[in-house]
Design a protein that fits this description.
- Belongs to the DeoC/FbaB aldolase family. DeoC type 1 subfamily.
- 45% of the residues lie in helices and 17% in strands.
- The chain is built from nine helices and eight strands.
- The protein has one domain: Aldolase class I (TIM Barrel, Alpha-Beta Barrel), CATH 3.20.20.
Length: 213
């Protein structure tokens, strides 16, 4: 796979405006990235700008805290897919996971996967808030629920992707799920280190620089 197809070209800042989303999409087409990752209100803009390309529209759900009700997340995910999203990156309920309520976490992910159907579902575990034991449990919950990816981070919490976390997540999910590293991947060396650790997708706002270098 060529390097550009590892990249989810990302812009999730709350102050992002239409022109910036359009620019993001033009860059994604130019560099042939896997997707653009945006907030759901920009689905229509991204779909229009990416029409005729093979760049997917990825959206975030329950973002960035993951603390919404399951019903709210399911509606948000279903609505995003209806509006044209190809991929959904959801934040799991970190507090429930840390409480040991894996049944809740698994059930929520499963319901969201049912809502998005054949569309790709990535589960953001927010690894910077978890112990290694909790990271493993989060990955196992995502596997049990039928998700497609586990993802390290939102990029909006205390830390981003680390090689340690990507390796641990990949060791846990094996070939059953894919791993996305997101948050803080800015240099070619970091990019390659994440791939070597097992990441099959990289979420970054520095995709153009990474591919150019």
């Amino acid at each position: 796979m060529k390097p550009s197809k590892y990249i989810d070209h990302t812009l999730l800042k709350p102050e992002a405006q239409k022109a910036a989303i359009e620019k993001l999409c033009r860059e994604a087409k130019e560099y042939d990235f896997a997707s653009v990752c945006v907030n759901p209100c920009w689905i229509d803009v991204a779909k229009k700008e990416l029409a005729g390309s093979d760049v997917n529209v990825c959206v975030v759900i329950g973002f960035p805290l993951g603390a919404m009700t399951t019903e709210a997340k399911v509606f948000e995910a279903s609505d995003a897919v209806k509006k044209g999203a190809d991929e959904v990156d959801m934040v799991l309920n970190v507090g429930k996971l840390k409480d040991g309520d894996d049944a809740y976490v698994t059930d929520e992910i499963r319901k969201i996967k049912e809502a998005v159907g054949a569309h790709v579902l990535k589960v953001i575990i927010e690894a910077c808030l978890l112990t290694d034991e909790e990271k493993v449990r989060a990955c196992r919950d995502a596997m049990a629920a039928g998700a497609d990816f586990v993802k390290t981070s939102t990029g909006f919490s205390a830390g981003g992707a680390t090689v340690h976390d990507v390796k641990l997540m990949k060791e846990t999910v094996g070939d059953k799920l894919k791993v996305k590293a997101a948050g803080g991947v800015r240099t070619p060396e970091e990019f390659q280190a994440m791939i070597d650790a097992g990441a099959e997708r990289i979420g970054t706002s520095h995709g153009c620089e990474l591919v150019s270098e």
